[in-house]
Amino acid sequence: MRIFFPRTWRLFDHQEHKVIIVGLDNAGKTTILYQFSMNEVVHTSPIIGSNVEEIVINNTHFLMWDIGGQESFRSSWNTYYTNTELIIVVDKELYKTLAHEDLRKAGLLSFVNKRDVKECMTSGNLPWHIQACCALTGKGLCQRLEWAMSRL
Ligand SMILES: Nc1nc2c(ncn2[C@@H]2O[C@H](COP(=O)(O)OP(=O)(O)OP(=O)(O)O)[C@@H](O)[C@H]2O)c(=O)[nH]1
Ligand SMILES: [Mg+2]
């Protein structure tokens, strides 16, 4: 995995940044967690509960929580939200739906919808980006973490 973040001011950034990884079951969250922490693919089993790893990248410390995506556990996700600085949403359904020959040349624009509904998050308070990745190779994972870190 490529190591980045050359900014010198980060050399002394020992604050721990809380990250949560959410998404439906089987999306690849645990695989991504261990790509970040061990730079390798581990054998995973579906989890009801969570895994947490402390990860240091270029002297920036992350406490990365991988939260089980099984339906029965989703109502517990909110117990992990306190002090979260970065949310990683892993979505395999989107990929599956769009992996079609007819869409090979299409662009992709994603809307965070229902901004008129009060309880919904808005793009105003939640900066976000879409990044294609492969958790088995680690490709794509680092680029977007770099983008996210610049906003911490
Ligand atoms: N082909 C492919 N398989 C992947 C990728 N990422 C994960 N997988 C596989 O998808 C399966 C599920 O991955 P997990 O990381 O356990 O999924 P999860 O999101 O943690 O699932 P829950 O713990 O049930 O919420 C495993 O067999 C992984 O090897 C990927 O980028 N490509
Ligand atoms: Mg898992």
TrEMBL record:
SMART domains attached to this UniProt entry: ARF (SM00177)
Amino acids binding GTP: 23-30, 69, 113-116
Domain of life: Eukaryota
Keyword Nucleus: no
One Pfam family here: Arf
Cellular component, GO annotation: cytoplasm; trans-Golgi network
Alphabetical keyword list: GTP-binding, Magnesium, Metal-binding, Nucleotide-binding
InterPro entries with a match to the protein in the record: P-loop_NTPase (IPR027417), Small_GTP-bd (IPR005225), Small_GTPase_ARF (IPR024156), Small_GTPase_ARF/SAR (IPR006689)
Residues involved in Mg(2+) binding: 30
GO BP of this protein: intracellular protein transport; protein localization to Golgi membrane; vesicle-mediated transport
UniProt-recorded Gene Ontology molecular function terms: GTP binding; GTPase activity; metal ion binding
Transmembrane regions listed in the UniProt entry: none
NCBIfam families reported in the protein's UniProt record: small_GTP
Family: Belongs to the small GTPase superfamily. Arf family.
Protein name: ADP ribosylation factor like GTPase 5B
Organism: Gorilla gorilla gorilla (Western lowland gorilla)
